[in-house]
Amino acid sequence: MKQNLFINDFKIEAEQIMHQFVEKDGRKVNKLTIDFIVSHEDYHDVTTLLYKNNFDVKVPDSNLSFQAKISNYATSITNLYEENSKGTFHLELQEM
User: Fold this and answer.
1) Where are the domains of the chain?
2) InterPro entries this protein is in (predicted)?
3) Distance between the two ends of the chain, CA-based, in angstroms?
């Protein structure tokens, strides 16, 4: 089921979101694993956002809100500059 989240107020419609707690420096922190589709039209905005790597993450449906950085990232395609192209982004965000 698709679910919306916001990264620095940028809305992302996720194909899949998995929330879990992981241990970091002796404390439990939030970790989100997100898969979402990025189109040619949104590619520049999404990659510019991800390069910041300091995020305010909000998942309204789950009442989650935390500061995060990327712990893992992958894409199904490396060239979204071609018109009408789409790719799946896999993003893992961990609370700071």
Assistant:
1) 3-95
2) DUF3219, YkvR-like_sf
3) 27
> At which residue do the structure tokens 């809100």 appear?
65
Residues in the chain: 96
Give tens-digit pLDDT for 45-87.
998 999 999 999 999 999 999 999 999 999 887 778 788 889 9
Closest CA to 13 of 22, 21, 2: 2
In which residue are the tokens 């899949």 written?
16
37 burial (CB, 10 Å; 0-12 / 13-18 / 19+) is middle
d(CA 82, CA 94): 31
- Bridge partner list, 4: 13
Cα separation, 3 vs 47, in Å, equals 20
**Which CATH number, 1.10.10, 1.10.8, 3.40.50, 3.30.70, labels domain 3-95?**
3.30.70
pTM confidence score: 0.88
